[in-house]
């Protein structure tokens, strides 16, 4: 005989049960149990139909019989909560060090059970070996790489725009880098404030999954949303875009707006709040893509802190690996990196190869025995490495030296045409492109006046065309497998991670332009974007060989005066690769600050304005030591010398190199004289050292040659730790 069913007492309760059974969440299962029982079915049959245990069926039938629909609600349980915001789980996992990412460790920090953490991570595909992580949206996303490319918020719903690109074969499924914690916190705080300010009724819990909640009228279509989607599609024409309604009712006609913009509309996960979801997808993006730097997140936080409506659209994404540029594969592809022997000594072998290459480069030509003496490697190791480099064409053997004892000794040197790189220097007035071989010799060069067209696209097109023209004119001089890539240098500041020019002086047309992403559409090779002063220092180290084999400061006299720092045999870039803002240091040293307290922009640090007079003395009429007219070269050199003095006292180096396009002619001698006097007469430790001030080995094309040399430096400089 079947168990006696507990039937609903009223038709309205049946309606409630049917609505719950059709909806999401745990109440759907409980309502389905009661409705099945109302049809007279046994507990065992209900359990089989719904895929649960008979005890679960009996429990919820008994609760409904005793309490009605109220008995189907969840009850407080002892211990840790079983439900947790999945966005918090994802963010906490990605921000944690690798040894603290287990479900138990994350659960302890969030105050929830490890089973809830594990379930959330499964839904987001975190830690899956066969596929990358994805947010569990409705409808579901296809497999791919997720990027956050837009956020919109005003009087209507809060929206986030995602771009989905195919997963790169061979890329690790797990996070590659830890996201920038401070930048993520800034975005979360700004978004929370924006929701509270623009929509005071926002709840702190997870977003309502229903697109049109009952009893709440849907918002009218917002013209601002249409403009937002159209602008995002123009910025990301090739990406699959997905719009997620984070909070609030979806606007009437939003489906149609998305269809016109070729955007797919989604609802966020049920167990995730609006702020935690945005923070989670940003952390996921930043952990998978190095170009999603702190600067991208801080720009978003600044926009969210601004007035409503918020319309943030990310710059174009970098070209996907293996993605062909429009119109062809580009002029040259980069040479594949050569492999190293040794199953368990790949890193060590690669480092030792770089040590040998560096030793040969500094010496010019050298014997294997001398390499062993200088590097402290064994003769056997040097012979093996030299033989490998000779076979791969990086070294060439010269005629043998005759010796009085034993067989003649063979000299080896770098093969000049074993590697080439293209360098482009972007100046407010001219563009300079050079093709440089491994010895630092310029194989081809081309200089053009920069276009007066005020559109970023026109400037970028000219840059690309100039580089392509130089490569095309080399003929057969450059083999495809010897080309390392393209280095581009601009006045700072620059975001080298994403390759974006931020706010270069006198070049407003390139402000916030994603230069590397745009050039990747024309060149199918690695592209580095660097500050001009930093690149010039790298070029000086590479071309100067043994004379520049020690630490030094490079003062670059270009549109402004910048500093490049070679410390411990490597370029020092700093936290954001913007070290060397010499003008700021010079102003602070001279006590020249604006009323706001910000260091003054010194006319002395703009060599283009310096005036070379016959006596080159102080001009009458200058009050308070600050020239009212353009400064003479000597006045400027003395000011620059004071800044150089501060660097010498700070870094305690013994060499200052002065170069750049304005370190030429009679002015160069004045700069060198005044700087040398300042760094030797006034330092605190002047009794312990003599600082040498020398002219650069490369003058006019220093930055362009340095741009190309950054590729050589990245490929061949020995480092125990490789920087991205």
Account of the 3D structure:
- The protein has 724 residues and is of the alpha/beta class.
- It folds into 5 domains: 11-72, no CATH class; 145-313, no CATH class; 346-417, Winged helix-like DNA-binding domain superfamily/Winged helix DNA-binding domain (Arc Repressor Mutant, subunit A); 419-533, Nucleotidyltransferase, domain 5 (2-Layer Sandwich), CATH 3.30.420.40; 545-702, ATPase, nucleotide binding domain (Nucleotidyltransferase, domain 5), CATH 3.30.420.40.
- The protein is 38% helix and 16% strand.
- The strands form 5 sheets. It has a 5-stranded mixed β-sheet with strand order 4-3-2-1-5, with helices on both faces.
- Strand 3 (240-247), helix 10 and strand 4 (263-266) form a beta-alpha-beta unit.
- The chain is elongated, with a radius of gyration of 33 Å.
- It starts with 10 loop residues before the first helix and ends in an 8-residue tail after the last helix.
- 42% of the residues are buried.
- Mean pLDDT is 80; it is low at 4-8, 200-221, 324-329, 334-348 and 618-627.
């Amino acid at each position: 005989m079947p168990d006696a069913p507990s039937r609903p007492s009223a038709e309205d309760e049946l309606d409630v049960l049917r609505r719950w059974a059709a909806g999401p969440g745990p109440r759907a299962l409980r309502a389905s149990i009661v409705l099945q029982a109302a049809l007279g079915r046994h507990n065992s049959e209900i359990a089989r139909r719904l895929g649960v245990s008979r005890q679960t069926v009996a429990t919820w039938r008994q609760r409904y019989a005793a309490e009605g629909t109220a008995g189907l609600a969840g009850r407080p349980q002892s211990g840790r909560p079983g439900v947790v915001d999945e966005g918090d789980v994802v963010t906490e996992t990605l921000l944690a060090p690798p040894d603290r990412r287990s479900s138990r460790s994350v659960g302890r920090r969030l105050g929830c059970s490890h089973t809830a953490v594990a379930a959330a991570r499964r839904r987001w595909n975190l830690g899956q070996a066969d596929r990358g992580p994805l947010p569990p949206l409705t409808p579901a996303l296809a497999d791919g790489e997720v990027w956050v490319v837009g956020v919109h918020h005003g009087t209507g719903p809060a929206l986030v725009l995602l771009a989905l690109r195919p997963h790169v074969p061979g890329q690790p499924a797990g996070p590659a880098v830890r996201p920038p914690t401070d930048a993520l916190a800034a975005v979360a705080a700004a978004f929370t404030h924006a929701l509270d300010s623009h929509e005071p009724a926002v709840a702190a819990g997870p977003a309502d999954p229903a697109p049109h909640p009952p009893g709440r009228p849907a918002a009218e279509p917002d013209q601002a949303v249409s403009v937002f989607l159209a602008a995002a599609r123009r910025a990301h024409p090739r990406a699959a875009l997905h719009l997620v309604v984070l909070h609030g009712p979806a606007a009437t006609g939003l489906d149609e707006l998305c269809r016109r913009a070729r955007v797919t509309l989604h609802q966020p996960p049920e167990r995730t709040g609006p702020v935690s979801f945005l923070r989670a997808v940003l952390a996921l993006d930043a952990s998978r893509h190095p170009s999603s730097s702190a600067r991208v997140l801080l720009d978003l936080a600044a926009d969210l802190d601004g007035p409503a409506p918020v319309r943030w659209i990310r710059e174009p994404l970098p070209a996907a690996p293996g993605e062909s540029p429009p119109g062809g594969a580009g002029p040259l592809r980069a040479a594949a990196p050569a492999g190293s022997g040794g199953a368990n000594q790949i890193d060590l072998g690669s480092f030792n190869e770089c040590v040998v290459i560096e030793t040969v480069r500094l010496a010019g030509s050298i014997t294997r025995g001398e390499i062993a003496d200088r590097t402290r490697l064994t003769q056997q190791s040097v012979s093996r490495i030299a033989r490998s480099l000779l076979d791969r064409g990086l070294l060439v053997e010269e005629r043998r030296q005759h010796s009085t004892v034993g067989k003649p000794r063979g000299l080896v040197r770098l093969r000049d045409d074993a590697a080439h790189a293209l360098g482009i220097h972007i100046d407010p007035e001219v563009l300079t492109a050079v093709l440089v071989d491994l010895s630092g010799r310029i194989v081809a060069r081309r200089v053009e006046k920069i276009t007066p067209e005020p559109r970023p696209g026109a400037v970028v097109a000219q840059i690309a065309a100039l580089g392509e023209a130089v490569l095309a004119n080399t003929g057969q001089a450059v083999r495809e497998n010897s080309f390392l890539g393209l280095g581009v240098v601009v006045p700072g500041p620059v975001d080298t991670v994403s390759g974006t020019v931020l706010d270069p002086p006198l070049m407003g047309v390139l402000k916030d332009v994603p230069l590397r992403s745009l050039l990747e559409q024309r060149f199918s090779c690695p592209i580095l974007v660097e500050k001009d002063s930093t690149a010039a220092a790298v070029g000086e180290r590479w071309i100067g060989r043994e004379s520049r084999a020690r630490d030094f400061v490079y003062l670059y006299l270009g549109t402004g005066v910048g500093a490049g720092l070679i410390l411990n045999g490597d370029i020092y870039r700093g936290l954001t690769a913007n070290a060397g803002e010499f003008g700021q240091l010079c102003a602070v040293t001279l006590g020249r600050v604006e009323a706001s307290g910000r260091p003054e922009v010194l006319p002395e640090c703009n060599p283009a304005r310096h005036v070379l007079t016959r006596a080159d003395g102080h001009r009458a009429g200058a009050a308070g030591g600050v020239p009212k007219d353009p400064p003479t070269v000597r006045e400027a050199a003395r000011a620059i010398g004071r800044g150089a003095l501060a660097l010498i006292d700070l870094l305690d180096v013994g060499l200052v190199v002065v170069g750049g396009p304005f370190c030429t002619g009679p002015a160069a001698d004045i700069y060198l004289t005044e700087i040398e006097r300042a760094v030797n007469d006034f330092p605190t430790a002047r009794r312990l050292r003599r600082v040498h001030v020398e002219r650069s080995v490369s003058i006019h094309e220093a930055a362009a040659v340095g741009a190309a040399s950054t590729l050589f430096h990245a490929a061949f400089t020995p480092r125990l730790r490789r920087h991205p």
